[in-house]
Design brief:
Elements: E1 17-22, E2 25-30, H1 41-71, E3 82-84, H2 91-98, H3 110-117, E4 123-131, E5 135-142, E6 145-151, E7 154-159, E8 164-165, E9 176-179, H4 193-205, E10 211-215, E11 219-223, E12 229-233, H5 238-255, E13 259-263, E14 271-274
Parallel strand pairs: 3-5, 6-9, 9-10, 12-13
Antiparallel strand pairs: 1-2, 4-5, 6-7, 7-8, 10-11, 11-12, 13-14
């Protein structure tokens, strides 16, 4: 038996045909290919006519995301701080005074924060620095208490400049100045700095001296061996006043004079009053 291959007549206008032969029969398959091309012209025209609007939308979206990132999370908010240079003032007190708890790191004014911390009576100077994401460091210089200032039964600490400080612990070996003023000193205010200087010099000259009185009008006041008050005044020449006191008291003893008081506020013109 002979296999016969038949041909089919090609139709006009029909697509290109591919023939396959199987067992003497002819199978025709049409291979049609098509490519769909995208027309970008409308999109390009839209961008050219609305490029400002699209750019604004993109910038708004970016700004919204940045706002959420910076202000919608806790990553950039301050809830603690590092404190350096403090010995007497607790870190928590400095942190609470600064007012930075819960503040965004972007809204902190370091200069203003330093000024607020420096208002503490015990702080002489302060410096504040900030680092992302939420780190704040405060460096302080504390005032150094020199004497104990006592008014009635209340005690304060006072530094070289006469600034009244909080008493924190025990100020060992410090001279006590007993204030006879009608009103107590104000915490963070100032007392007579010249009286503090005089008390320090007096304590250096007489280390065994534990307390001295202070009168707003007469300065430092001590009691002589005869029981009369000695008005030493204030200032930085306590050594010469003590020397004049000793010489004057020795001369008065020789003369048998018992003074009611001795006034050395003006060392060049010592004054006494006889009983």
């Amino acid at each position: 038996m002979r296999l016969v291959r038949r041909r089919t007549k090609k139709r006009k206008g029909s697509p290109k045909k591919r023939s396959e032969t199987r067992q003497g029969y002819v199978f025709e398959a049409t291979a049609a290919t098509s490519v769909r091309r995208v027309n970008w012209a409308p999109l390009a025209a839209f961008w050219r006519s609305h490029d400002g609007v699209v750019l604004s939308v993109l910038l708004l979206a970016a700004a919204t995301w940045a706002s959420y990132l910076f202000f919608g999370t806790d990553d950039f908010y301050v809830y603690s701080m590092a404190v350096e240079g403090n010995l007497a003032v607790p870190e928590q007190e400095i942190f609470e005074t600064s007012g930075l708890d819960g503040q965004s790191i972007f809204w902190i004014d370091p200069q203003h924060a330093a000024e607020v911390v420096a208002r503490l009576p015990d702080i002489k100077a302060a410096e504040v620095s900030c680092e992302l994401p939420n780190r704040v460091t405060v460096r302080v210089e504390e005032r150094q208490a020199q004497v104990v200032w006592q008014w009635q039964d209340r005690q304060f600490w006072v530094d070289d400049y006469g600034v009244v400080l909080n008493p924190r612990g025990v100020l060992s070996e410090a001279l006590i100045i007993q204030d006879d003023s009608p009103a107590p000193p104000r915490l963070g205010g100032r007392v007579d700095a010249e009286a503090v200087l005089a008390a320090q010099q007096l304590h250096d000259l007489r280390p065994q001296l534990r307390a001295v009185s202070y009168d707003p009008n007469r300065g430092l006041v001590l009691e002589s061996q005869t029981g009369c008050p000695v008005y030493l005044g204030v200032g930085g020449d306590m050594a010469s006043r003590l020397a004049i006191w000793e010489a004057l008291e020795a001369d008065l003893r020789k003369q048998g004079i018992r003074p009611a008081y001795i006034d050395l506020r003006y060392p060049q013109r010592p004054v006494y009053r006889q009983l």
